[in-house]
Structure formats: structure tokens, C-alpha cells
Amino acid sequence: MIKRYTDHSANERTYLAWVRTAIAVMAFGFLMEKFNLFLTYLSASLNEPDRFQTSIAAEWVGLALFAVGIVLIISATVRFFLFKRAIEADDPVPYDLKLTNLLMSGLLVALAVFLMVYLGDQL
């Protein structure tokens, strides 16, 4: 049996949840980028360039979401190994608020606020 199995499995579940969140953020960025490309091709194929307006902001938001997803995966991986080492240590390790947790959560909140403003402006 693995020593402190429940702690290790909880650490792994947390890691996988962050990776799943990062993949969803990256997929949304990919969707925004491809939809903007779709509108460009659609307006070109209909010979009506003014009918479907594309936005350079949508391209930047798509790329930014992809970059945020990459940062989330890297941060989650670093966090996973730090906690793995702390779980395996025989010495007691105090649990405190980690800067990476605050940064990842803050990044997601900032991203959500930005998307709300961006989508609200498009209406």
C-alpha cells in the first residue's frame, strides 16, 4: 500500500481538475479564434466583406485564452510536485495560502470579467 495514499490521490484529483479547467479555457480560445476565421471566409465567399464583421480583438482574446491555459497547466504541474514532496515529507509542513493558488484563481476571475465586458460590448 502507498503511504498516505488518500493525500496523494487528493493531490492528483486537484491537479487533474486544474488541467481540465486549463483545457476548457484553451478550447474556448481555440473556438473564438476559429469562429473569427470562419466569419472571414464566409464574408469572402459571399463577396460581401461588410456583411460579417470580424474583430482583431477576438483573435487576441483567443490567443490570450490559449496562453492562459498554458500558464494554468504549468502552474498546476508545479503545484502538484510541491505538494507531492510535502506529502511525502516526514516533517510536518504548515499549510498556508500559496501565491500560485491566488494567481491562478485571480487569472481566471480576471479572464471571466474581461469576457463579460467583451461580450457585453459586442451586443
Can you describe what's shown?
- About 10% of the residues are buried.
- The termini are far apart.
- This protein is about 80% helix and about 0% strand.
- The protein is built from three helices and no strands.
- It has one domain.
- It is an all-alpha fold and about 120 residues long.
- It comes from Saccharospirillum salsuginis.
- Pfam families: DUF202.
- Keywords: Cell membrane, Membrane, Transmembrane, Transmembrane helix.
- Its main location: membrane.
- It is found in: Cell membrane.
Provide key terms for this protein.
123 residues; IM_YidH-like
Helix/strand order: HHH
Which sheet architecture does the biggest sheet show?
none
Structure annotation, total helices: 3
Q: Report the C-alpha radius of gyration, rounded.
A: 20 Å
Number of strands: 0
Question: What is the residue-mean pLDDT, rounded to a whole number?
Answer: 81
Structural class: mainly alpha
Between the first and last Cα atoms, what is the distance in angstroms?
57 Å
> What ranges have pLDDT less than 50 throughout 5 or more consecutive residues?
none
**Shape field:** elongated
Strand proportion, as a percent range, falls in under 5%
Helix percent band: over 70%
**Quaternary class:** single chain
Number of structural units classed as domains: 1
